[in-house]
């Protein structure tokens, strides 16, 4: 009897994942390529996902002044929104400045976040050239690229970010 | 033997045995006082509201007009009203469930008004079959409920400041709320798409104006996450993710993506703004901790707390909340003498994993200055740290994941302030 109960409970335990799948109505439809292409905005540190287009800091200054300055302040030093450049203090100082230049580990994040979310009052309004240009300008304000340097899908992932190795992955998978 | 002698103190400062309330019919100072005040009116055979028919039925209920002060406190960006937070008024609530309309909010660019008939969920990337689901499809899947807290990673961040903030507990710690979330186990849909062996991460994206996205380790996604359609029995409210929210029990709020529209299986994190520039903790060394998803054990006393006033010495009920992102709360201890001695509080059943747990303990206040504290211990043995210990190990610039013991000082006049003690 004991063995039978043991066997039964083991069988239920082992079978559970399979049962979960079998209990699914499986209503998912094959996702059209256009949907995947149009929705997939993810960009990775190695540049995967970056679109065609390009821009320089000189061009990006105009974009910044039109769309960003009112919240992020002159030269990205922050106002109602985050400070992005112009750090006066390092990360171990009493009042650290966490700007793109001192804190952000990947340049691709600037393009990704700006494309997703900025400007707040009209997200999606910037085209790819404008996005590359304003990304270049923010990097320029942080002394990470030159004013005329062309930023595109190939050059952006190569920009050397000062705090690239400043993060410790603290995730411990459950054992 | 006098009544007070019967009530044996179990720790300094007048803390009494946690089982006392359940065993004996004690009278409370506060109740005794209000009974005196109201006695004359209630002595009439019919109060005003019993002399005529009441109001008719309503399609959707609202709180009493006398409870209009129990609201979320909101703080939006001056330049963008939908960028900000609202706090749950923990000081006004009891039990373990947060009413849906009082659940805290953190929006990056407002609340989208999504038509569920037009909303879709896309699962793609490292899967054998990229799939798209309508909300109608999802209604036909087997559902389950998880009762869990959601806490913003930035909750309680005023605790890092060098001076203790003087504000109500909800305004300090109220970016934490607890609901019953009902929906489909995430692994069910991931299995349907057939995950490829190389997949290690899941990037989740919302359909709000900031297309908010974060990366989530796949092992957690396959463990206890659900795709919630319902909150506290009704469809999720717009500000909490209608029509679909990813629920990641025990992990910081930002990964519980609202308005979910896309799950992208990948072999690496995307390194989004909200997992690099934000929701990372700068340490004294200058290095920052990243992917610190779990909300560690925390507790705080909600009654009495800042803004409440004890009118006279006597017997009071200390009540508070404890939770841990690692599992169940094993024990909550309370001190009324600034941490010199501790007594075990009663935990209200049910005590659930990664869920608000209500604790209570009776306290005989003698009218003298007292410092009240609570500390949570979870089932892994983790003990909520004192503030000085937390600050010593984490520095003061981590901003996120502040979970130190909270101290309330009761002055001899009964007023309550927040102290570091």
Characterise the protein shown here.
Chain A is mostly helical. Chain A has a domain at 42-158: Cytochrome c-like domain (Cytochrome Bc1 Complex, Chain D, domain 2). In chain A, 38% of the residues lie in helices and 5% in strands. Chain A has six helices and four strands, in the order αβαβααααββ. Chain A has a two-stranded antiparallel ribbon. The longest helix of chain A has 21 residues, at 2-22. The two termini of chain A are 33 Å apart. The relative contact order of chain A is 0.17. The two termini of chain B are 37 Å apart. Chain B is built from eight helices and 26 strands. Classes of the chains: A mainly alpha (175), B mainly beta (421). Chains A and B meet through α1, β1, α2, α5 and β4 of A and β6, β7, α6, β15 and β17 of B.
Per-chain topology:
The complex is a heterodimer of chains A (175) and B (421).
Chain A: H1 2-22, E1 29-30, H2 33-39, E2 54-55, H3 57-67, H4 69-72, H5 108-117, H6 128-141, E3 151-152, E4 167-169
Antiparallel strand pairs in A: 2-3
Helix pairs in contact in A: 3-6, 5-6
Chain B: H1 3-6, E1 9-11, E2 15-16, H2 20-23, H3 29-42, E3 73-77, E4 80-87, E5 105-107, E6 120-125, E7 131-134, H4 135-139, E8 144-151, H5 169-173, E9 176-185, H6 186-193, E10 201-206, E11 213-217, H7 218-221, E12 226-231, E13 234-235, E14 245-247, E15 260-266, E16 281-282, E17 288-290, E18 298-303, E19 314-323, E20 329-335, E21 343-344, E22 346-347, E23 357-365, E24 370-378, H8 387-394, E25 407-410, E26 416-419
Parallel strand pairs in B: 6-15
Antiparallel strand pairs in B: 1-2, 3-4, 4-5, 6-7, 8-9, 9-12, 10-11, 10-15, 12-13, 12-14, 16-17, 18-19, 19-23, 20-21, 20-24, 22-23, 24-25, 25-26
Strand content of chain A: 5-15%
The total strand number of chain A stands at: 4
For the biggest β-sheet of chain A, the strand order reads 2-3
Give the CA-CA distance, first to last residue of chain A. 33 Å
Estimated structural class of chain B: mainly beta
Largest sheet of chain A: 2 strands, antiparallel
Radius of gyration of chain A: 24 Å
Element order, helices and strands of chain A? HEHEHHHHEE
- What helical percentage do the residues of chain A reach? 25-40%
Q: Pairing-aware structural class of the strands and helices of chain A? A: mainly alpha
Indicate the CATH class of the domain at 120-289 in chain B.
Alpha Beta
